[in-house]
């Protein structure tokens, strides 16, 4: 008998299981609202034209080779990434107390931060929103955090933010806990704090001497505006917080399978920055040794070239505009049908996802009867919708609810 016969089969990863189910489904009008990736009006993945341009240049550039990158990643990429996040003339950058470490996607950046906080700073307590991106909990668990808590966030009644609950739950944590925050486009709810609310969150983090980790996986993609989407991170930095921010370029560059992300480290002084960087380099060395070049080269080439950069900004506007259009259309359609309930949260929520408020029975109805695939939590990816499947989906939701 195998010595692994006693290994428990891990539960399936819901979103990947749903995609597999969707792919196997032969129903012609099936709709995939589960996937966490952008889709065009034709329901297709989109390679950004500016990415195509850079790829073509790279294919014939004789100066490029396949040598190892530095452990911390491609210098031009790291510098461009932190600049994008904080703004070129951010005092922290000018004072040379910001570092970027290239990572395998936003996930890799989260993992580096969690490993560092556990291994080097001996943190054991972390708090994150309820609900949150399902991977957050697992990352901290596998990094060995013993006390993983979730704070109130989604108010099912108002379909908005439970700020008081959130602040109270963070206050109840031990001092110097890790506080994981979604900088914009909260996944899965699409509910973001207002600037006034962010100030209160920062107050509590300050009181609790929290280690702040901001997850920013949708910069630019959320509102179409780089600065608006990084407001919360910049606000914390300008207030003097030392923090980590995990940046993903999966969504805003459409580089999902290239695994390109960055861990931004902000400290109070240059020396501490170097100390932290040196420890994180050891974590990188023992995890993936050094990161891949391709995605980093693309992102750096775009962000460091003014013409390509403005082209890219147009692309993120195209994507965020399309998502907002789908929000409007779904809302109007449900209103027209007279579907019971208030549906304006669909237009107020931010980012790619909407937390519809559909319950598990209604979700099951949509999957079984209509072949519309969405997460059990009721989260839908707005860009799984197109003008051609909009009526079908709205009618199905109407049927599920009534
Ligand atoms: N954080 C959040 C909130 C996300 O939604 C995602 C992706 O879905 C990520 C991080 C990680 O993205 P990446 O694919 O770059 O690892």
Keywords:
pyridoxal phosphate; 402 residues; globular; two-stranded parallel ribbon; seven-stranded mixed sheet; 46% helix; EC 2.6.1.1; cytoplasm; binds pyridoxal-5'-phosphate; alpha/beta; PyrdxlP-dep_Trfase_small
Estimate the global geometry from the Cα principal axes: globular
Bound molecules: pyridoxal-5'-phosphate
Q: Please tell me how large the radius of gyration is.
A: 21 Å
SS-based structural class?
alpha/beta
How many strands in all? 13
The average pLDDT is 96
Order of H and E elements: HEHHHEHEHEEEHEHEHHEEHHHHEHEEH
How helix-rich are the residues, as a percent range? 40-55%
Q: Indicate the proportion of strand residues.
A: 5-15%
**Low-pLDDT residue intervals, each spanning 5 or more residues:** none
Order of strands in the sheet with most strands: 2-10-9-8-7-3-4
Largest sheet: 7 strands, mixed
| End-to-end distance | 53 Å
Number of helices: 16
Protein name: Aspartate aminotransferase
Keywords: Aminotransferase, Cytoplasm, Pyridoxal phosphate, Transferase
Pfam families: Aminotran_1_2 (PF00155)
Cofactor: pyridoxal 5'-phosphate
């Amino acid at each position: 008998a195998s010595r692994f016969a006693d290994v428990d089969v891990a539960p399936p990863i819901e979103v990947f299981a749903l995609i597999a189910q969707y792919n196997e489904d032969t129903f012609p009008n099936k709709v995939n609202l589960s996937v966490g990736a952008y889709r065009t009006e034709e329901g297709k993945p989109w390679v950004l034209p500016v990415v195509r341009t850079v790829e073509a240049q790279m294919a014939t550039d004789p100066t490029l080779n396949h040598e190892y990158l530095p452990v911390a990643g491609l210098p031009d990429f790291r510098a461009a990434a932190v600049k994008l996040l904080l703004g070129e003339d951010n005092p922290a950058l000018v004072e040379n107390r910001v570092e970027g470490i290239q990572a395998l996607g936003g996930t890799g950046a989260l993992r580096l931060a969690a490993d560092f906080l556990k291994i080097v700073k001996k943190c054991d307590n972390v708090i994150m929103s309820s609900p949150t991106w399902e991977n957050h909990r697992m990352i901290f668990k596998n990094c060995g955090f013993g006390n993983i808590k979730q704070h109130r966030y989604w108010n099912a009644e108002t379909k908005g933010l439970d700020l008081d609950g959130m602040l109270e739950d963070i206050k109840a944590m031990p001092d110097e806990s890790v506080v994981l925050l979604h900088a914009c486009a909260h996944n899965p709810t699409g509910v973001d704090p207002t600037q006034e609310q962010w100030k209160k969150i920062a107050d509590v983090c300050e009181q609790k001497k929290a280690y702040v980790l901001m997850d920013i996986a949708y910069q630019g993609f959320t509102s179409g505006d780089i600065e608006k989407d990084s407001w919360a991170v910049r606000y914390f930095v300008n207030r003097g917080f030392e923090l980590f921010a995990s940046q993903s370029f999966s969504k805003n560059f459409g580089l999902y399978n290239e695994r390109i992300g960055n861990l931004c480290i902000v400290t109070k002084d240059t020396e501490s920055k170097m100390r932290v960087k040196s420890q994180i380099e050891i974590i990188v060395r023992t995890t993936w040794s050094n990161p891949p070049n391709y995605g980093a080269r693309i992102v750096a080439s775009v962000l460091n070239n003014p013409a390509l950069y403005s082209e890219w900004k147009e692309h993120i506007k195209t994507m965020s505009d399309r998502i907002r259009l789908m929000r409007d259309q779904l809302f109007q359609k449900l209103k027209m049908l007279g579907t019971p309930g208030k549906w304006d949260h669909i237009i107020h929520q931010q980012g790619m996802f909407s937390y519809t408020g559909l319950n598990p029975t209604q979700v099951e109805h949509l999957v079984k009867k209509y072949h519309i695939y969405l997460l059990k939590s009721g989260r839908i990816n707005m860009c799984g919708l197109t003008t051609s499947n909009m009526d079908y989906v709205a009618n199905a939701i109407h049927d599920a609810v009534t």
